[in-house]
Amino acid sequence: AQKITQTQPGMFVQEKEAVTLDCTYDTSDPSYGLFWYKQPSSGEMIFLIYQGSYDQQNATEGRYSLNFQKARKSANLVISASQLGDSAMYFCAMRDIRDDKIIFGKGTRLHILP
Amino acid sequence: NAGVTQTPKFRILKIGQSMTLQCTQDMNHNYMYWYRQDPGMGLKLIYYSVGAGITDKGEVPNGYNVSRSTTEDFPLRLELAAPSQTSVYFCASSYGQGGQETQYFGPGTRLLVL
Hints:
The complex is a heterodimer. Chain A is an all-beta fold.
């Protein structure tokens, strides 16, 4: 069965510093996709970045990058030069290509300090 | 192009009442999903659909029913509301399988069962 684990319930980071949010996953399927979403206090879900299991390079989207370590089943989100607006809940998610379900981790609440 | 819309935005139900949460997408997406998010928690998949006429259970389907008679609509039915169903419900859609197929989320329905 698929499983997503986010071990950091909360983090405090100084503005302009880089931050790494941890995500590990478990699946027996060789084909899968990994997502990160941001949920600000307003409640909407905002897609940040995607990594496919067969992608050779780590995904990047602006200040967001995904540190994909397939052998360790790790898909950490890195935010460079953090901003106050980055304060939010961050969710890691995985799609099992075989059955199309997308499951989410419990999330990490990130607080950016001025 | 409205994306994914959900109605109502907020609802209070008495124990034992029933209701239908509406979800509509105008992006011609094949895949649609229902999640619930309990306070301070991640999203749990209730049901999903890979196309009109096809639905499947997610992680927490008990107490809910769905139907998918059209590509656009994916209503979620609660038959006998219980306090444990107090949650925020998100509907999401995506185009299809594989690739960078992120989900687009609706704004959510906040449900309180008393």
